[in-house]
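Researcher: Here's a chain I'd like modeled. Treat it as a single chain, no partners, no ligands.
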Amino acid sequence: MATFGTLSDRLTETFRNLRTKGRLTPADVDGTVREIRRALLDADVALAVVKEFTAKVRERALGDEVNRALNPAQQVVQIVNEELVAILGGEQRRLQFAKNPPTVIMLAGLQGSGKTTFAGKLAKQLEKDGHTPLLVACDLQRPNAVNQLQVVAQQAGAAIYAPEPGNGTGDPVRVARDGVEVARRQLHDVVIIDTAGRLGVDAELMRQAADIRRATDPDEVLFVIDAMIGQDAVNTAKAFQEGVDFTGVVLSKLDGDARGGAALSVASVTGRPIVFASTGEGLDDLEPFHPDRMASRILDLGDILTLIEQAQAAFDEQEALKVAEKLAKEQFTLEDFLDQLQQMRKMGSMKKMLGMLPGMGQMKQQLENLDEREMDRTEAIVRSMTPAERRNPKILNGSRRLRIARGSGMTVTDVNQLVQRFEQASKMMKTVARGGVPNVPGMGPLGRPGSSSKRGKQQKSRAGSRSGNPAKRAAENAGLAAQVAETAPTGSGFGLGGAAKPAEPDLAEIQRLFGKG
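Model: Modeled as a single isolated chain. Structure tokens:
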């Protein structure tokens, strides 16, 4: 996540230096702990949390569990990961629902922390889970706060109770109490109360929030905190805990670029678990908070479980089986490709998905340069085709391609490249579906049995001319040398060597296969 990007970079660099050592000395451990302390402090993690965290890491790193390990460096990384999980709350905490509906959820926090947007996100997620939430507009202070909640409720497809126009008029305590009664009469099983915030912690804010809590007796009080506000996050959390108290924390704006380390301190300082993490402006950009997964992301170990869950939510299992069957029978068409493209879009941002893969923190520049609009352009081209053209791209002659280019706002070259990439990808997928080995352009068959022996025979046949005529022998040897130079494999296997570069035709083939150059 962008908020913890700098912290992730610092910790990853520290562990990279650690992995070069076969045996760890106390000096190595002290140096590593020192770098971890600096990284956490630079990321705005609370000083008390940093001291406790580094003390535990140092104590465990100097213990027998590391000294007896086969790979001490990996053991230290594991210790840091476990301690990060601990300060983030340990285990995942889910929403607690009332035995007798409706479940009342009260939102609290400073103005601008993202309470109203989170209310819509939570309502939409609850709708997906089969609940019938009711949003109650109790922020009657901030200008147009009620209107904003109405818009958010409409986008989320949730009901809303907003009897007062707001903008400084109305009694929020009465609205909250009446909202719970309306939910009970209309059989809404969840009530989400959006309360007012202030630019800073003050007595009036605390009194109003405490009055609403006493009037509605909520099952959950969620404190929404902006992950970008720095050290003030801890002070604000303490003030709300003393004045109102809350049962869980919501981290908002985790997609921001500011140092968000103070958010790591909230669970440890307040003793209240983090329940949700808001990762974007869209109503779908809300995730249940998993301390172990967040720790893995910070340490650039990836978050494969979340990626799998998103894929399972977006992809239809029956459709996936149909696609696999079509691949095996060589019936995969551009219509199927378009369906798969749309299902991928349901999973969200491609950059976020790729960022969940282990080690992607080292490829930040490549991720930043990823143009997600390429999927839009591809979809526009496919949609500009007729159903017959999607099912059989071979009928695409010059005039048809020109019509498709004009209809999609692209060029004929773009259409040609898409068709070529689709045909090559189809060939590879058909080969894999049959249990074969794909033939990658410029590389030949991957791991084909007997390829090394064939190559050996070729090299043996090129050992040199045996002609008795010196002039003829020299000419033939020169010809063989030129032939070897032309047909020799370019580049180096698995990135070793690194001196040679792929030939231009090979690069062009690879770029056409995997995307635009």
